[in-house]
Amino acid sequence: LLELRQEVGRFLKGRYGLSYDPEEEILITVGVSEALDLIVRAILNPGEKIMIPRPCYVSYGPLALLAGGEPVYIDTDIRQGFKVTPRMIEAAYRPGVRALLLNYPCNPTGVSYTRKELMEISKVVRRHDLLVISDEVYDELTYGFDHVPLPTIPGMKERTAYLNGFSKAYAMTGFRLGLACGPKELIAGMTKIHQYTMLCASITSQMAALEALKNGHKEVIAMRKEYQRRRNYIVTSLNELGLKCPMPQGAFYVFPSVKRTGMSSMDFARDLLEKEKVALVPGTAFTPHGEGFVRISYASSFDNLREAVLRIGRYLKKKKK
Predict the structure, then answer these.
(1) Of 127, 242, 273, 286, whose CB has the highest number of CB atoms within 10 Å?
(2) What is the DSSP letter of 45?
(3) pTM above 0.90, yes or no
């Protein structure tokens, strides 16, 4: 819908001061997942590489491979809060690298970046003439500071594919609706693939998204406040139980270490599920670099989180015996 693209343009202009032409620089997609697939296929030639900080969302590496490209992983560390730094990007760069895929706030770690940190990252990006795929679908769920879209950084708008959606901020996961903004050449390439593979996103979902953009921001603010309360509780509780857990700056996940148990991520997750009926995701779902960690979502009721903490604590006590 052109009406939705126009509203997306108005929203981004009012929210972040970003200007995109609704007719040539904005594409509505079937979730951010489709947008990711489209941009990777549009920019990668066979054998070209894309740098991806990890742990990362499950589809990033496979999408690069399916497009005939090669993922170059940048391994982040809990000691730095799982943040990727300019030095790490510089060290990972090699001939044939076409782009950097940056997700913030990050699934699964919750890591996000300040304007100062993004400015430093942009220097490396521009030095090597890279494109950036910036997956910012959790932007409205940022805690402690304001989210800074990468295209607002000087010199980055013309080299950034900005991806966002409605699943997280507006709790519209089942509607499957995302968006991509960027230079018209990039959007044209993505649109060509989109037309042949998907035709269009659901009109019903697009109408719902239009309503969300126009009238949903009050609910977004309330939801963010509640998620922050849950985040603070779960991080404090896990650390008190002896599971080292950094404080995420966004999204609705925590990524604690389970290394002290001596169990693999998968064994811990399976055993906890079987014995205490608490479901979480082993860190290895987010590349092998996630070994030793698990992802816990706090997109659940406060009562459920309390009960989960009690059960995890009981499980850990039994493991000590």
Answers:
(1) 286
(2) P
(3) yes
- Measured from the Cβ of residue 288, the count of other Cβ atoms closer than 10 Å reads 12
DSSP type of residue 50: E
Contact between 72 and 94 (Cβ < 8 Å): yes
Checking if the pLDDT of 321 tops 80, the result is no
The pair of structure tokens assigned to 253 is: 């996940």
Terminal alpha carbon distance of the chain: 61
pLDDT of residue 110: 97
Percent of the chain scoring above 70 in pLDDT:
100
Q: Is 156 exposed, middle or buried (0-12, 13-18, 19+ CB in 10 A)?
A: buried
pLDDT tens digits, residue range 150-186? 999 999 999 999 999 999 999 998 999 999 999 999 9
Distance separating alpha carbons of residues 162 and 160, to the nearest angstrom: 6
- What domains appear along the chain, each with residue ranges and CATH number? 2-215 (3.40.640.10), 218-320 (3.90.1150.10)
